[in-house]
Amino acid sequence: MSTLPKIAWVGLGIMGSPMSENLIKAGYQVTGFTLEQEKLDRLAAAGGSAAGSIAEAVKDADVVITMVPASPQVEAIAYGPDGILENAKSGALLIDMSSITPQTSVDLAKAAKDKGIRVLDAPVSGGEAGAIEAVLSIMVGGERADFDEAKPIFDALGKTIVLCGPHGSGQTVKAANQLIVAVNIQACAEAVVFLEKSGVDLAAALDVLNGGLAGSTVLTRKKDNFLNRDFKPGFRIDLHHKDMGIVTDAARNVGAALPVGAVVAQLVASLRAQGDGGLDHSALLRAVERLSGAQL
């Protein structure tokens, strides 16, 4: 019998499915729940167990991991008679890897403590590719002892794993991450349109740019998206729109000015309003193309 903790995984989307599968590969017993049957079938095919409800998934789990789109979904699966807090055993560790507001994480930790459940907020960066390759950056908020206990699990999912402070700190750092990523993608998109309209070999230009100070993980990961106009979602505009709302609201609360971030947040919102919310966030290129006269 394995001495590894039993894991319940709630939320098997673009990120959650490959992440849960990496835990199975690492030898963990994973029981999953999500609303899509095909995702449950995929988990079972990978060696996990499919549950019919949140309560069934979490009842025997030592660790419960959640990966859902936003704060309302976290609250929906955590609270109420059918939720995690009412059905997980006392002493369990709840690791929320969703990207949500810092306050939602703080409130969840307080509510869970009353049930004898410990909580870490542990959002990730790296997109679908990082999830598949188990090279995610994981920013964590919570108690040091709980972080140390969870570290072997995090090691099966990512490469850069840092405890950033108390509850909510992981979400604050993730908000800053999303600000940087959005501004970076926007800058890359503007450069792509500028280069193409100037008649430059785009592939050659992006290669040399990525080898200098303009290089970035964003450009490395998204270069082919730009070159091929391939906007299959690794991280959807809809979700980045949500995240830009989180960072602009959190910044306002602490008195931090985000002049460039505010503009990019509006560009993300405009792209979503034009029907591109389901595309990858590299589709910010489409917004620049429209502003530059292209008919898309």
TrEMBL record:
Question: What family does this belong to?
Answer: Belongs to the HIBADH-related family.
**What is the originating organism of this protein?**
Streptomyces similanensis
Report domain 3-hydroxyisobutyrate dehydrogenase-like NAD-binding positions: 168-287
- The reply to whether Oxidoreductase figures as a keyword in the UniProt entry is yes
Q: Give start and end of each 6-phosphogluconate dehydrogenase NADP-binding domain.
A: 6-165
Check the record and name the Gene3D superfamilies matching this protein.
N-(1-d-carboxylethyl)-l-norvaline Dehydrogenase, domain 2, NAD(P)-binding Rossmann-like Domain
* InterPro entries xref list: 6-PGluconate_DH-like_C_sf, 6PGD_dom2, 6PGDH_NADP-bd, HIBADH-like_NADP-bd, HIBADH-related, NAD(P)-bd_dom_sf, Tartro_sem_red
Record keywords: NAD included?
Answer: yes
Q: Which domain of life is it from?
A: Bacteria
Q: Name one Pfam family in it.
A: NAD_binding_11
Kindly state which keywords UniProt assigns to this record, in alphabetical order.
NAD, Oxidoreductase
Q: Which SUPFAM superfamilies match?
A: 6-phosphogluconate dehydrogenase C-terminal domain-like (SSF48179), NAD(P)-binding Rossmann-fold domains (SSF51735)
- NCBIfam families in the cross-refs: tartro_sem_red (TIGR01505)
Q: What is this protein called?
A: 2-hydroxy-3-oxopropionate reductase
Which chain regions cross the lipid bilayer?
Answer: none
